[in-house]
Amino acid sequence: YALIALGLALAVYIAFKWWDRMRFFKALRMARLPVPELRRMMDEGHDPLVVDVRSASARSLDPRRIPGAVAVDIEKIDEHLSGLPPDRDIILYCA
Fold first, then answer.
1. pLDDT for 2-40, tens place per residue?
2. In what order do the strands lie in the sheet with 49-52?
3. What is the rounded CA–CA span in Å between residue 32 and residue 22?
4. Are the C-beta atoms of residues 73 and 93 closer than 8 Å to each other?
5. Residue 68 backbone phi and psi in degrees, to 5
6. Rounded to the nearest 5 degrees, what angle is found at the Cα of 20, between the Cα atoms of 76 and 86?
7. Using CA atoms, how far apart are residues 11 and 51, in angstroms rounded to an integer?
8. pLDDT tens-place string over residues 35-59
9. CA distances from 44 to 37, 41, 92, 94 (A)
């Protein structure tokens, strides 16, 4: 009975972790901001902070930038996190 209980506990744990991961991915998909929405925010004066976390090579291949975006290498993002203002919406822009 102990092995059955242990197996059942393991199955419940795995099911919970799967459900939690699916919920996380769903939230991640919802957290994306379409370009027109960003434009609307900027036009309405919400002044979001746009952080361009594309690699240097990606930025050189496509040099277009969102006006006012701050370029930060993704490898060094930890160094810049403390300097981000807590009172503004922060939008990460990647490739």
1. 999 999 999 999 999 999 999 888 877 767 888 899 999
2. 70-71, 49-52, 90-93
3. 16
4. no
5. 85, 0
6. 40
7. 41
8. 899 999 989 988 888 988 888 888 8
9. 11, 5, 19, 23
Beta strand 90-93 with 70-71 is unpaired
Task: For residue 91, report the phi and psi dihedrals to the nearest 5 degrees.
Answer: -120, 120
Q: What 3-state class would DSSP assign to 32?
A: coil
38/30 Cα distance (integer angstroms): 14
SS3 state of residue 50: strand
- Looking at residue 8, its amino acid is L
**Residue 3 token pair:** 């092995």
Distance CA 58, CA 20 (A): 33
Question: How far, in Å, CA of 18 to CA of 2, rounded?
Answer: 24
91's enclosing H/E stretch is strand 90-93
Task: Give the DSSP letter of residue 76.
Answer: G
